[in-house]
Every structure is written in C-alpha cells, then in structure tokens.
Amino acid sequence: MRAGIVKPDFAAAAAMPAFTKADTVGEPLLELRGIRKTFGAVTALDGLDVAVHPGELVTVVGPSGCGKSTLFNIVAGLEEPDVGGTIRYAGRSVLATDLLGQVSFMPQRDLLLPWRTVVDNAILAIEVEGTPRKEARAQAMAMLPQFGLAGFENQYPQQLSGGMRQRVALMRTFLFKRDLMLLDEPFGALDALTRTLMQRWLLDVWEQHKRTVLFITHDVDEAIFLGDRVLAMSARPGKVKLALDVKLERPRRHDLVTDPAFIGLKRQLLDAIEEESLKSFDLQKAPS
Ligand SMILES: Nc1ncnc2c1ncn2[C@@H]1O[C@H](COP(=O)(O)OP(=O)(O)OP(=O)(O)O)[C@@H](O)[C@H]1O
Ligand SMILES: [Mg+2]
C-alpha cells in the first residue's frame, strides 16, 4: 500500500452511476461528428469524430496545440464549435452549451483557490451547484482517505505537494457527480514516480466508481496503461488520426509496460504521432 493512500470503502460511491462493460456495445454516451472549431484565422479542430461509450476510459494524445483542450472546452459546454458538426449526449442531439454543468471537468491547470482549504476547494463545484456547505463538506470528508488526503482537510493549496494538489483537483471533479468526466493532463506537472503512483491510484478509483472518462495526456505510456482506447490526434487542425483499442486485461499490472503486447501498441501509437509532432513543430515555426 502506498504511503498516505488507503483503500476506499466506496460508501460514497454507492450513489454513483455503475456501468458495466456490456454497455460499450450500445449507444455511445458522447458522440461528436464532423466537429470544426476556428479561432479567427486559426483552425483548431476540423473533421473531428469521437464516440465514448458508458464506462469507458478513453485517452487522448496529440501534439501540443492540436486542439485537445479545445475539444474538452466544447464537451464541457464552454465553447460552441463552428456550425456543421453534431454532438449527441446520452442519446440526444445537443448544442455544446447544453452540456454546461452536465459533465465534470478538470481543466489543464488545477485552479485551486489559494484562500480555500483542501476541503473547501474540493467542494467548490458542488457548492456552486447549490449543495449546502455543511452537507458538501461532509461528502468531501468521507472521500478524503480515498484521495490520500485524510488529515489534510484544513491545509491550504500552497502547503501541499504537487501530487496532493492534483488529488484535491481530482476529488473536486469526482465530487461533482456526472456520468462523463474530462481530465485534461491531470498528472502533467508530476515527476515520473509520483505520476506512476497516481496512474495506478486513478485506475483503482475508476474501477470502483465506473465513471466514463476522457483523459488527455502527452505521455504515450500513460495513454496505453490507463485507456480502453487511445485516440491519437493529428497536428492542427486536430482530428482523430488513429483510434487504438487497448485489449490488455484489467486490473493493469504495474509491470505491464514491459509486456510485448504493450510494446506493440506503443510502437503503433508512436508511428502515428511522430509524423504529427513533426508537422506541429513546422506549424509553430510558420503559423497559418
Ligand atoms: N480561446 C482561444 N482563442 C484563440 N485561440 C485559441 C483559443 N483556444 C485555443 N486556441 C488555439 O487553438 C489551438 C489549439 O489549442 P488547444 O489549447 O486546444 O491545444 P492543446 O492540444 O490542448 O495543446 P497543449 O497540448 O499544449 O495543451 C492553438 O493554436 C491555440 O492557440
Ligand atoms: Mg491543452
């Protein structure tokens, strides 16, 4: 057992949606078709198709600037794509703005408020939603051990390590109970060892909660280790260049990265994204 992290009892998880793998053959929870998004002269996304089934953990990799965060901003309802594409969520055709508040979202930067304690940062989203503070705090307190934060409830963000800050931000995202969770490079700022521990911890939590997750990362190993499917995006304008099914058994063992099947997947993925990264590098030299 890792220091500071105890196995959850998941009493709090009982109220959460429980999907089974059988659901992955049915209708997607989220389906984007032909999505395009321009910012002035910059086309961030073009021809983007994504489908995520209930209970899946789908990881997204792609060169810097290819539109990954833009994709998340659309699914979180913060940006509307250009006209022409379609978005379906839970079986209904929707506008991006209809999704505002319907999905839980951990943005690329952790956005912890320095004047709020751990517990009050964790409850921010549900408090804004209208949960009374006392009740919200009780929910957060029950989740603290599972997130390795027991005893730290009254600390402020600046008193925490990077890994702990990430867990507070993740806890906020988990507390905001929605069927779909968007995590934008949640472990991006962590050292390699902490990152590996956090990946295994996230899988433990996800396998218990069975939330549907879209997870952005720059790390190909992380994408395969966590994902049921990896989406590799093209250089800007971004679209899905390769969707790779990861049929490696769960729970994922920590030594999986040396497994020949893992290495085979990694080779396919690296081949797909190497060319895109080079294109993206050229784009940065001469922006369109
Ligand atoms: N609000 C905005 N206004 C103008 N341009 C934007 C805006 N948001 C994103 N862009 C542009 O869209 C493109 C995609 O940006 P985005 O942040 O989605 O990339 P990303 O794939 O998340 O990159 P990174 O891996 O570096 O986080 C970039 O060229 C960026 O400058
Ligand atoms: Mg980004």
Features:
single chain; 288 residues; Rossmann fold; six-stranded mixed β-sheet; 8 helices; 10 strands; 33% helix; globular; disordered N terminus; binds adenosine-5'-triphosphate; binds magnesium ion
The number of distinct β-strands equals 10
CATH architecture of the largest domain: 3-Layer(aba) Sandwich
How many structural domains does the protein architecture include?
Answer: 2
Q: How much strand?
A: 15-25%
* CATH class category of the largest domain: Alpha Beta
Structural class assignment: alpha/beta
Bound molecules: adenosine-5'-triphosphate, magnesium ion
Examine the coordinates and then state which fold CATH places here, giving the name of the CATH topology of the largest domain.
Rossmann fold
> In sequence order, what are the helices and strands, one letter per element?
EEEHEEEHHHHEHEHEEH
Radius of gyration, CA atoms, in whole angstroms: 19 Å
Quick one: CATH superfamily of the largest domain?
P-loop containing nucleotide triphosphate hydrolases
- Average pLDDT over all residues: 88
Question: What proportion of the residues is helical, as a percent range?
Answer: 25-40%
Low-pLDDT residue intervals, each spanning 5 or more residues: 1-23
Structure commentary:
- This protein is of the alpha/beta class and 288 residues long.
- It folds into two domains: 18-103 and 180-285, P-loop containing nucleotide triphosphate hydrolases (Rossmann fold, 3-Layer(aba) Sandwich); 112-177.
- Helix content is 33%, strand content 20%.
- The protein has eight helices and ten strands.
- It has helices at 68-75, 118-122, 124-128, 133-143, 162-175, 192-209, 220-226, 260-285, and strands at residues 30-39, 42-52, 57-61, 86-89, 92-94, 104-106, 180-184, 212-216, 229-233, 240-245.
- The strands form two sheets. It has a six-stranded mixed beta sheet with strand order 6-7-8-3-9-10, with helices on both faces. A four-stranded antiparallel beta sheet has the order 2-1-4-5, with no helix packed on it.
- The protein is globular and about 50 Å long.
- The model is unreliable at 1-23 (pLDDT under 50).
- Magnesium ion is lined by residues 68-69, 108, 184.
